[in-house]
Amino acid sequence: MHTIDLRSAHARAVRATVPVVARIRPPDLSRPTPCTDWDLGRLLAHMTAQHRGFAAAAAGRGGDPDVWPPRPLADDPVREYAQAAESVIAAFAEPGVLDRDLLLPEITPRPLPARLALGFHLVDYVVHGWDVARTLGLAYTLPPDVLAAALPVAEAVPTGEARLAPGAAFAPPVPDPGDDPLHRILALLGRDPAESVVPRG
């Protein structure tokens, strides 16, 4: 049986978001996104901050509250995003990282196994890469083994009333869209692959 290399899948999922983010232009930052109540600027700030937070967690500094909050976008937010993406990939590539427990206070007060944390970050960027692409009207594809690594993580995310709470990471699941693995991941995490992004009324 072929074993999926989680670090490789994660690195490729994160890097796949970089050329999509690179298509963002300043006027795009006010566009609505599939993330309810977030425009593209706020989504990009969140994505950049999460890279930094997970990188800090992999380095043993996840308990520092200062590493997690989003910052105002820099003068060159696309370049800043690309640097943050490479920083989280490098942090999880360090020897021994996947054998540790990491602090991710935004998810749970208890330490989490690093492999589980890496899976969370992987699936988050499969979804957020699609969010940015859909906002910009771009096609978005990922390698089959990246999606194969992300799908079990998406299937394991708890459902229930917590998905309805303000600030919840994911909305409730939408009806199963079929066999396409990317569409299945999106649907499990509250995105409708068939829905267009429309300006908020």
Automatic annotation (TrEMBL):
GO molecular function terms attached to this record: metal ion binding
Residues covered by the Mycothiol-dependent maleylpyruvate isomerase metal-binding domain: 12-133
InterPro entries named in the record: CHP03086, DinB/YfiT-like, Maleyloyr_isom, MDMPI_metal-binding
TM stretches of this protein: none
SUPFAM superfamilies for the chain: DinB/YfiT-like putative metalloenzymes
Pfam families: MDMPI_N
Source organism, top-level taxon: Bacteria
The protein's name: TIGR03086 family protein
